């Protein structure tokens, strides 16, 4: 399936590395004028050196006002991917206010904030658009020591459904992609752990952990016109672990 994005302007948050970087690179390769947003300038410099056509934006997504200003200055966006996310591990009884605030600020609040700015522009232009949130399989399943992370992704899924209902009449489609453990800097410590890694792998019928490309491809599909009647879904990408 040939998917192209010529004439489109795309924004990807958390695009300095991992899944976000892979998505931004794929969108640019597909012809979209692409903006990579991240909090770490060094990561953005690397993205820019590898992809000279890429626009980069450095902002702390936990800063509501600064984020809103940065996204407004980018201008019209047709395709948005909210990938930025952080994780912390703690038993439920030890999950403190600071941890909850940090994870919800980046994993949930930032996606709402960026999406509001982008969606308002889409509505004003009247040409529709597509938004994809990178959620997680654990938005649907509990995971030990991940109360804050699971909750933030669950909130993201539910807000996506409301967005799909409210923005659909404006021809703006909103969906989530919910991957299982993917080989990135954020999850490598678990995947490579001699105890936890094999235990996780045993839950995947296809017998391997996700690579970045395994998440990038469904995101590109959902952003494309090939998916123009797909709205309000949580697309699980997990090698079958959800049914194991």
From TrEMBL:
Query: Among its keywords, does the record have Transmembrane helix?
Result: no
Which BP terms does GO give this entry?
glucose metabolic process; xylulose metabolic process
Q: Which GO terms describe its molecular function?
A: carbonyl reductase (NADPH) activity; L-xylulose reductase (NADPH) activity
Q: Which InterPro entries is this protein grouped with?
A: L-xylulose/Carbonyl_redctase (IPR051737), NAD(P)-bd_dom_sf (IPR036291), SDR_fam (IPR002347)
Which positions, given as ranges, span the membrane? none
Per its UniProt entry, which superkingdom is the organism in? Eukaryota
Quote the Pfam families the UniProt record gives.
Answer: adh_short_C2
Q: Does the keyword Amino-acid biosynthesis apply?
A: no
Q: Give the keywords, sorted.
A: NADP
SUPFAM superfamilies (UniProt xref)? NAD(P)-binding Rossmann-fold domains (SSF51735)
Of which family is this protein a member? Belongs to the short-chain dehydrogenases/reductases (SDR) family.
Sorted alphabetically, which PANTHER family does this protein's record hold? D-ERYTHRULOSE REDUCTASE, D-ERYTHRULOSE REDUCTASE-RELATED
The protein's name: L-xylulose reductase
Source organism of this protein record: Ridgeia piscesae (Tubeworm)
Q: Which lineage is the organism of this entry classified under, starting from the top rank?
A: Eukaryota, Metazoa, Spiralia, Lophotrochozoa, Annelida
């Amino acid at each position: 399936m040939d998917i192209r994005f010529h004439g489109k302007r795309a924004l990807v948050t958390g695009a300095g590395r991992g899944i976000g970087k892979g998505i931004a690179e794929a969108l640019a390769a597909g012809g979209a004028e692409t903006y990579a947003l991240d909090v770490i300038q060094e990561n953005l410099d690397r993205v820019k050196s590898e992809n000279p056509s890429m626009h980069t934006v450095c902002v702390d997504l936990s800063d509501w006002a600064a984020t809103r200003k940065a996204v407004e200055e980018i201008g019209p966006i047709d395709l948005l991917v909210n990938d930025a996310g952080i994780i912390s591990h703690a038993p439920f009884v030890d999950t403190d206010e600071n941890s909850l605030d940090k994870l919800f600020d980046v994993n949930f609040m930032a996606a709402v904030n960026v999406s509001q700015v982008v969606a308002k522009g889409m509505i004003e232009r009247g040409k529709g658009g597509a938004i994809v949130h990178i959620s997680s399989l654990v938005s649907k399943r509990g995971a030990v020591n991940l109360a804050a992370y699971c909750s933030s992704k669950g909130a993201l899924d539910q807000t996506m459904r409301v967005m799909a209902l409210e923005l659909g009449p404006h021809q703006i489609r909103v969906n989530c992609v919910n991957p299982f453990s993917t080989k990135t800097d954020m999850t490598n410590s678990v995947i490579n752990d001699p105890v936890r890694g094999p235990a996780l792998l045993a839950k995947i019928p296809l017998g391997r952990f996700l690579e970045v490309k395994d998440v990038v491809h469904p995101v590109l599909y959902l952003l494309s016109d090939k998916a123009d009647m797909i709205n309000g879904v949580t697309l699980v990408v997990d090698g079958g672990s959800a049914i194991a």
